[in-house]
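In response to reviewer comment 3 from the previous cycle, which asked for concrete evidence that the modeling workflow produces usable outputs, we include below a single protein chain processed end to end. The sequence was submitted unchanged, and the resulting structure tokens are shown without manual editing.
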Amino acid sequence: MSKFTRVTDQISVAPQVALGDMAIAAAEGFSLVINNRPDGEDPSQPSSALMEAAAMAAGLAYAHIPVRGSPTLDQVEEERHLLESHSGRVLAFCRSGTRSIVTWSLGQTLAGDRTRDELVALGEAAGYDLSSVLPR
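The workflow returned the following structure tokens.
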């Protein structure tokens, strides 16, 4: 099982999750899973189609916003809009969780929802250093 790290009441991030983790996420109260990992990044990772099927079987909504390297503005906006329209708890994952928390935090910055200092502190509490990726 992958470790789900709470960032805020709405969002948690995780490194690559297994298919069986979808039922665990549902049992823990998540209602949406966002996969920020591109298909084929590692031969051992489940495809997005398999992840989506496991999420749906567990009663979870699912979105695939694959990020290679740094997220693009379109990816940040897509994820931000998805989160704004979703009232439940969200689990976002990638290989290590870094792309997921970076994509989320850039969306928070663009929307003006949180200050850079708040986001850096939330990242640090979750085990991620956002100080070099957030604009000053």
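Residues 5-101 form a domain with the Protein-Tyrosine Phosphatase; Chain A fold (CATH 3.90.190.10). We consider this sufficient to address the reviewer's concern, and the full set will be provided in the supplementary archive.
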